[in-house]
Write a structure and sequence with these properties.
The protein is α+β, with helices and mostly antiparallel strands. It is built from 5 helices and 7 strands. It folds into 3 domains: 1-37; 38-134, Multidrug efflux transporter AcrB pore domain (Alpha-Beta Plaits); 136-186, no CATH class. A hairpin with a 2-residue loop joins strand 2 (77-85) and strand 3 (88-95). The longest helix is centred in the N-terminal third of the chain and has 21 residues, at 11-31.
Length: 186
């Protein structure tokens, strides 16, 4: 007895077998890797500002909202995300794929330059950086020194280590994060 004869005699079995094949095909299709599509990453520009000693609410009101209002009307903005924490404001602007990243970064720099006068004088000037949408920190380095406070270690890392790490080949961005502990993101 062949498979076709068996399926004719048992139509429920044939239907279940067909459905299983379709489900298996759909699952397999979904898990296949796609190699022919271009690698599309949207242009992303980030603005980070440090305001030492300020709470998250103060940073939100005096820095983040002021910058957001100014950069919100730039051409081609898809998404504007912000994060205000103690002593730090981070704004991430995602642009349309067609938008040139250099032109977008220049537009953001122009808008930020106009708003610097409205920011508190104690705050560091905003830093505008172009970012790869898929880029993530690869390495975190934490520092601890016996006999030094966390602020002293952070100050040491900012003065002496940050520049040395920034010029290493393959390092796109090195930054110091946190005043309570010294940590460097590479």
């Amino acid at each position: 007895m062949t498979l076709s004869e068996f399926c004719i005699r048992r139509p429920v079995f044939a239907t279940v077998l067909s459905l299983l094949l379709v489900i298996f095909g759909l699952v397999s299709l979904e898990r296949l890797t796609v190699r022919e599509y271009p690698d599309i990453s949207r242009p992303v520009v980030s603005i980070s500002t440090t305001y030492r000693g300020a709470s998250a609410a103060v940073v939100e009101n005096k820095i983040t909202q002021v910058i957001e209002e100014r950069v919100g009307g730039i051409e081609g903005v898809l998404k504007l995300e912000s994060d205000s924490t103690d002593e730090r404001s981070s704004i991430r602007i995602e642009f349309e794929v067609e938008r040139d990243i250099d032109a977008a970064a220049n537009d953001v720099r122009d808008r930020v330059a106009r708003v610097v006068a409205a920011l508190p004088t104690e705050a560091d000037p905003p830093q505008v950086t172009k970012a790869d949408a898929s880029a993530e920190s690869v390495m975190f380095i934490n520092f601890k020194a016996e006999g030094m406070t966390a602020l002293e270690v952070t100050d040491y890392a900012e003065r002496f280590l940050l520049d040395r790490f920034s010029v290493l080949p393959g390092v796109a961005r090195a930054s110091i994060s946190g005043a309570r502990r010294a940590a460097m993101r590479i």
